[in-house]
Design a protein that fits this description.
Length: 258
Amino acid sequence: MKTIVENGAYLTAPTSMPSLSFEGVGLTYKDGTETLQDINLKVGRDEFVSVVGPSGCGKSTLLKVASGLVEASQGTVVADRDRLGYVFQDATLLPWRTVASNVGLLAELHGVPKAERERRVQEALELVGLSSFADRHPRRLSGGMRMRASLARSLTMDLEVFLFDEPFGALDEITRERLNDELLQLFLTRHFAGLFVTHSIYEAVYLSTRVVVMSPRPGRIVAEFNVPFSYPRGPEVRFSPEFAQLASSISSALRGAE
């Protein structure tokens, strides 16, 4: 069953509903600062939706509302928070734990028995290409490898929704593109619902089934674009005229929103 949070009240809903839903969601802080306004967005399983918008428009706050880290002031949020993973801008690995121990942390906190936890960790490390680094500590990993480990940690659980808060924003372009390809492969393998925040229009188009554009604060969804390219996607799609045209249209919508 999913959790519905409606003006602070928790209800339940059948799992046939979208994996993640915002209906009329707004957020105003106690000091009167309005951050989000009338957000209406649904993300189903096998959908990957990217959110772009100017800095400070509430993109990351939207993920916090989805996860329950921040409670909305208005509207309804539907999400199964027991099956929701959150990948932050920073890999948030514990420096004293090995890669395998970091990857197994979420399963450990959920009480998964040791033998099953170790099996899941091994499988997750294989999925992200870190099996040979299981015994290393985070300080011995590159930035891209640390983000892979962060992703693998969530993969140890049977998750329906993944929230991504600019996970590749601090990486160089080559590493970023490689991790985009790996994330797409994970999306096709795991069939989750993804909500991805990014400042890169090209990254948004390459990864997504849909791209939504937010206005400056208070953040509202002012445009939405379906991405017509089928999966799996190869790097060559980035150089097609259709890709360039779609990216240009999203860029125009973003400039118009500012």
